Amino acid sequence: MKRKDYINWDAYFMGIALLSAERSKDPSTSVGACIVSMDNKILSVGYNGMPIGCSDDEFPWNREGNPLDTKYFYVCHAELNAILNYSGTDMKGAKIYTTLFPCNECTKAIIQKGIKEIIYMSDKYAETDSIKASKRMLDAAGISYRQYVPVGKDITLSL
Ligand SMILES: Nc1nc(=O)n([C@H]2C[C@H](O)[C@@H](COP(=O)(O)O)O2)cc1CO
Ligand SMILES: [Zn+2]
């Protein structure tokens, strides 16, 4: 008889998004994303980090101060990195698992790539205009989004 406590697809892909977030150097918010094809094959992963060549020891991680000395102008979001890290050509009908609801800029890229579903974990910035704009675009574009419902299984990784 087959094993019973295997994880479902959602838990598997959100788990990979969560593990990817562990690579982030952002001291306040680590984000991970995993893009999956219609037939449940992983296409790409990403986490929030500085662009290639922009040292994460030299670029700022501050949230406040002179805008040029904050991370916001520089950091590449997890979802955008996952899209850009994909070396294939066709993302149509794919799903994106992300640990945080996509901002308006990533949402544009998600839409343009033909991704059709967003599964997110946290929506902690739901009250910001960026996220409101994301939802407006997603609703107009007919892209669905739903919050991940944890299955109640804890997995410990000893790394
Ligand atoms: N969906 C997202 N994906 C992301 O990768 N990020 C990144 C950008 C920053 O590195 C960090 C947010 O920093 P903070 O404002 O919570 O200190 O998360 C942010 C959002 C929010 O929309
Ligand atoms: Zn973004």
Automatic annotation (TrEMBL):
Query: Cellular component GO terms, alphabetically?
Result: cytoplasm
Q: Which GO terms describe its biological process?
A: nucleotide biosynthetic process; pyrimidine nucleotide metabolic process
Question: What protein name applies here?
Answer: Deoxycytidylate deaminase
Cofactor(s) annotated in UniProt:
Zn(2+)
Residues annotated as coiled-coil are none
Encoding gene (name): DCTD
Enzyme class, first EC level, given as a word: hydrolase
Origin species: Herbinix hemicellulosilytica
The UniProt record gives the binding positions of Zn(2+) as H77, C103, C106
Keywords in alphabetical order, please: Hydrolase, Metal-binding, Nucleotide biosynthesis, Zinc
Molecular function terms, GO-annotated = dCMP deaminase activity; zinc ion binding
